[in-house]
Amino acid sequence: MEAPAASLSKSAIPEGEDHPFTSVEHPLTVVLSPACDLDQQYNFRDDQPERVPFALSHVILLDLHFESGLRANPAIITKIFERIKNNQDERYHRLPSAGIASSDDSLPELFMDFKRAFSLPIDSIYLALQLELIERRAIVPAVYVHDLIHRFYSFLSRVGVPD
Q: Residue 23 — very low, low, confident or very high, per pLDDT cuts 50/70/90?
């Protein structure tokens, strides 16, 4: 089943022009947009869809990587990986393996690269949820969320200097 592009208007793509799209898969991601903003946006849309006071246009997401995927990067040598594994590298964050509540499933330890953050239009996410194209696998416990968000925004606010 092909999902319609909810966030594009007819006028956004001029007629007669070829616009190739590349599909990018994101098997596991973590939502970095504040949950309180997402909840307020979602609830307000249901109550008064004609007057959304602050329209969140996009949701910030980060891909989750298995250790093997991260170590496949030739720039990550053993010394750097040890720093990443101990959450001592400002660019990366590690989530330990954990069970999923109310399930026999568990997730292995997962890694994030803050340089690879991306965003998707919020309407596209609502549509994908509605069509069951995406699903929530787990919730990051609050004790980890605060550290994760703090580290992510600290990385974003750093002063970038050439290598």
A: confident
Q: What is the pLDDT of residues 131-160, one digit of tens each?
A: 998 888 888 888 888 889 999 999 999 877
- In the chain, what are the domain boundaries? 26-46+55-156
Residue with tokens 């991260």: 70
pLDDT at 54: 59
* Torsion angles phi and psi, residue 115, rounded to 5: -70, -15
Cα separation, 42 vs 55, in Å, equals: 10
SS3 45: helix
Q: 112 pairs with which residues across the strands?
A: 93
Short-list 146, 135, 156, 148, CA closest to 95 = 148
For the entire predicted model, the pTM comes to 0.74
74, two tokens: 């030739």
